Amino acid sequence: MSESPETADPEEVRHVAQLARVGLADDEVDQFTRQFADILEYFETLDEVPEVDREADLANVMRPDVERDSLESEEALRNAADTEDGYFKGPNVS
């Protein structure tokens, strides 16, 4: 990737679009090249923010786990759209 916003180029944008499987027209490549340069400039600005050394005051906001009986298989599968051999059956994924 580019080291500074000025070096963002259309080939990088085309490469990222290809990785994301997004087709871009030439005018979109130019638009995203400018936006990509702006984003890189924002990251450079973030690099200038000083780090803060302090321990965070963390609090556990989660409820404790409670053990309880689970549903019987037949009851759990009762409203399933499709089942097979005692299991939920979903659509094939290709």
Automatic annotation (TrEMBL):
Pfam family, one: GatC
Disordered: region residues: 66-94
One example of a Gene Ontology biological process annotation: glutaminyl-tRNAGln biosynthesis via transamidation
A GO term for molecular function: ATP binding
InterPro entries according to UniProt: Asp/Glu-ADT_sf_sub_c, GatC
EC number(s) stated in the UniProt entry for this protein: 6.3.5.-
Keyword field: ATP-binding, Ligase, Nucleotide-binding, Protein biosynthesis, Transferase
Reactions the enzyme catalyzes: L-glutamyl-tRNA(Gln) + L-glutamine + ATP + H2O = L-glutaminyl-tRNA(Gln) + L-glutamate + ADP + phosphate + H(+); L-aspartyl-tRNA(Asn) + L-glutamine + ATP + H2O = L-asparaginyl-tRNA(Asn) + L-glutamate + ADP + phosphate + 2 H(+)
Biased composition range(s): Basic and acidic residues: 66-77
PANTHER family, per database record: GLUTAMYL-TRNA(GLN) AMIDOTRANSFERASE SUBUNIT C, MITOCHONDRIAL
Function summary: Allows the formation of correctly charged Asn-tRNA(Asn) or Gln-tRNA(Gln) through the transamidation of misacylated Asp-tRNA(Asn) or Glu-tRNA(Gln) in organisms which lack either or both of asparaginyl-tRNA or glutaminyl-tRNA synthetases. The reaction takes place in the presence of glutamine and ATP through an activated phospho-Asp-tRNA(Asn) or phospho-Glu-tRNA(Gln).
Family: Belongs to the GatC family.
HAMAP family: GatC
Assembly: Heterotrimer of A, B and C subunits.
Protein name: Aspartyl/glutamyl-tRNA(Asn/Gln) amidotransferase subunit C
Gene behind the chain: gatC
